[in-house]
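Record pair follows.
FIRST:
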Amino acid sequence: MKKKILIIGKKGFISKNLIKFFNKKKTNFYSISFKNFIIKSYLGNKEFDYIINCSSNKSYINNKYQSQNDYDLLIAKKIKNSKTKLVMLSTRKVYKPKFNIKESHKKNPTCNYSKNKLQS
């Protein structure tokens, strides 16, 4: 059975490349902007196996953490009663610089974005 994937965010580097990759692999996916995802009622009740959040908010990147700027949190709240898995793209900036980083490694956030991502 093919997995159904939703990509949130259409304009960024990562989302554009994911879309190209999934098109080449003939993957069953959809893409939508964050704004349209929040406005729509979960795309007409379509169930997705995975949602990959590639969207971001400038306030989240530049300022101290506020939950209304945390798109991962807002998406998670919207899908909490479904079986859909949310893929949150993290960043190396959360961890102390080294090769082969794992989630169990020491954290060392140094900027607002990495501190916010760690809180997310």
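SECOND:
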Amino acid sequence: MPSPQLIGTPDRRTLDLGTLRQGGVELVGRLVGFSGGRLQCAGSLANLVANADLKQARLLEQVDEFIARAGVAASKPDRPPPTDVDKPPTSLDPCRFHTVVWATGHRHSPPQVDPVHLDRRGRIVHDGGILRTAGLFAIGLPFLRRRSSTFLSGIGRDAVELSIEIRKHLDRVAAAA
């Protein structure tokens, strides 16, 4: 699903999949398993991205139609181009990644998380987003650090505080190497 919040900064920069990709982020699709020492990803990424682009375009058209009907004076906005994902790999060597951003959606207990990180009700056990295994962190969970943790308007403070913890972890790893 596309995010209806396309602009989140005063300088009006977009942050969509295409922008991330231009910044060096590799889009690989949904993790479906691990076999033979390799990560296995679903082959549906191109379809999902095309669908998200289509839904985003429809949403933006509805916003434009509302603006026109309401008689609001507004310039025609730039539209993000369709996201090009080429043919993403379906089998990956996990050792080639230094950082992984795992977007699981709105699930309190993603099925891919080792059960050691779940409580008896299947929710992620954490202390302010820090899990039991060194180097494993979560964000966007209900009441992660405050009441607003699951909202776009409130997750920023959590992200700043958690990024400090991630930096401390990376410094410890670097010092031990």
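COMMENT: The mean pLDDT is 81.
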